[in-house]
Amino acid sequence: MTESPDTKAADDEVCRRVKNGLKPERNGLAKSLYPRPCHERPSKNRCHTAEEEVRPGMGRGGWVGEAGVYAASYDGRLYSRPFIEYFEETPMMVAVLTYMSYGILTIFGYVRDFLRHWKIERCHIASEKEEQKDFVPLYQDFENFYTRNIYMRIRDNWNRPICSVPGAKMDLMERATYDYNWTFEYTGWVVQDVINLGSYNYLGFAENTGPCADSAAEVTMKYGVGVASTRQEIGNLDRHEEMEKQVARFLGVESAMAFGMGFATNSMNIPALVGKGCLILSDELNHASLVLGARLSGSTIRVFKHNNMQSLEKLLREAIVHGQPRTHRPWKKILIVVEGIYSMEGSIVRLPEVIALKKRYRAYLYLDEAHSIGALGPRGRGVVDYFGLDPCDVDVMMGTFTKSFGAAGGYIAGKRELIEYLRSHSHSAVYATSMSPPVVEQIITSMKCIMGEDGTTIGSERLQQLAENTVYFRKRLREMGFIIYGNNDSPVVPMMLYMPAKIGAFGREMLKRNIGVVVVGFPATPIIESRARFCISAGHSKNMLDQALNIISEVGDLLQLKYSRHRLQPSSARPFDDDVYEDIDD
Q1: How far does the signal peptide extend, from start to end residue (predicted)?
Q2: 561-580 pLDDT, tens per residue?
């Protein structure tokens, strides 16, 4: 882009200002990150083999390897270990039957809506009053049609109340419905010792015994449960200060600050960092909190294909070359927004490549480690630790305490100037009530366990157990013939169900056999990619996992869920990245 005197003057003015906690820099055009054309097929003998997702119609530019899954090349010099992910293509017959299932349900849905319109069938769903018929409709979108006619048929699989600690095993309150899932009644019975494969309790710290529970109880007796004020008024306790220092040391950054809600950590802080005249480059599978934060910021948003570095680099180049729409002035800031572990895909961000692109094009990086902090890396310090990278290369580090730490809330970490800016400009910091003291103590104690500062090896043992459980569980599911998404080391394990009827059937059949699972469908996933999502914990013993796997296999045979055409052959002595497959006919 040719610079005019006006443009250059505006650029100089931007460079002199430090705005929104991030120092603006010129975004310069540079050569491609990739040393060779992206379409070239990688050598079969390369020691580092990555596999990238390719779905019908998404055009990921991958190649079909011997394993029968799709793979894409990447710069192996940036990785110190194999980076393997599985995203097997949906079998054609399964895709056709899934579309037919939704088509049949849609037809019946419109028939039932017709009957409801003429008062032949009673409608329980929210709708406008007759006197409001001339107003703009509130309940006419497709999501509401889906809720009325599809979601309500399988609603019993969600919102199940538990009456125990959500540990490796839990107790569920039994409920029944007599009006096809519109309302529920409790029977008074409790389903005991249900193996919990749904909670984000990655390191098993969601417990009512042990050092964390004891410390939280002690702090409760001293400080109480609530603070009844914001941090900026009289709600700033010494435990809050200690927690934030602990988080900064844990992450290896200059400073950190905590918030009472993980969702609000994203949705309320992104608007404080970027605004009009800024560009956000967001992964297409980012969490709803990131999407909401980006929209609230008023920035221009452009979406790149999931974990696809060619797509990201293309957007970065276009942003540098063309600048802002109409004026073509350079963007004030370019912010790349990614997650450490994607909660519905089980995939891990290609962070070394993202950082390389971020440095090359002078952009900023916002990393959401909600699911990866505590669950990845030899020291449990997230995806940065997993790849052995420098935390200073990530401009904004975000994470939550709700998963690996068994607590609540979230954090933002990075340079001291960034955190001081957010303390006075973030809506979450200024207006939100301070975190509860026992929750703060839970975070401090669990983090000390992970760091080994409690004088025990509990933290390192749980990290090792989680890693072993994850690899074992994923390997066994692939051997059984299920289609499993995501990275080998991700404790989030999506298993594809596809058809809408099998969403409810799988959840119910598993609960009948005392296994609690989470099933996921539209709108949390694409409408034809319904799945069960297992979350592995360090609290799971091998016997628990074997019991769960045997039942999953039994239910999989019952519901015909073993869709994979490239079944992994069981082998006790197989290299990490040398999987052996057999072809399965459709």
Answers
A1: none
A2: 999 987 666 644 333 333 43
